Amino acid sequence: MSNIITEDTLFKFILEKHLITLTAIGGIFTFAFVGSFKGDILDPLLHFIFPDEFFNFMNITIREGEQMQPPPVSINLRIGNFFKSMITWMIAMCGVYLLHKYTRFPDIEGGNKNGAVLV
């Protein structure tokens, strides 16, 4: 018997062991949405409120060298990117909800106790 994992055996294993869940799929889109909020909204606001110069007193110089002036930084709130991410998240959550509501997969005798299994 061969121990080589083929595409057929991998998908068979995933389907038999129910490794992909609605929770995992929803978590992927939620993580992307939260990351977009942090990168597009929260980080620029915090950079505006607390600029880099505000924390310069905590710098530690390991080796002296030539001092260079940093280029001016523009602060942009990318609200459009955030809304695009929010719309993607809402569509994904609606899709996950409809998938759960209309497939009811898998049918397990005695009911699906954890409610999260997709495949």
Can you give a write-up of this model?
The chain has 119 residues and is an all-alpha fold. It is elongated and about 60 Å long. 2% of the residues are buried. The model has no long low-confidence stretch (mean pLDDT 77).
What is the succession of H and E elements? HHH
Oligomer category? single chain
Q: What is the average per-residue confidence, as pLDDT, rounded to a whole number?
A: 77
Broad shape: elongated
Strand runs, count: 0
Q: Mind describing the biggest β-sheet?
A: none
Strand content: under 5%
Uncertain stretches? none
Gyration radius, in Å: 24 Å
- Structural class category: mainly alpha
Helix content: 40-55%
Number of helices: 3
Question: Termini separation (Å)?
Answer: 27 Å
Briefly summarize what is shown.
The protein has 119 residues and is an all-alpha fold. It has three helices and no strands.
SSE map:
Blueprint (H helix, E strand, L loop, with lengths): L6 H11 L4 H28 L29 H25 L16
Helix pairs in contact: 2-3
Please name the defining characteristics of this protein:
119 residues, mainly alpha, 3 helices, 54% helix, 0% strand, elongated
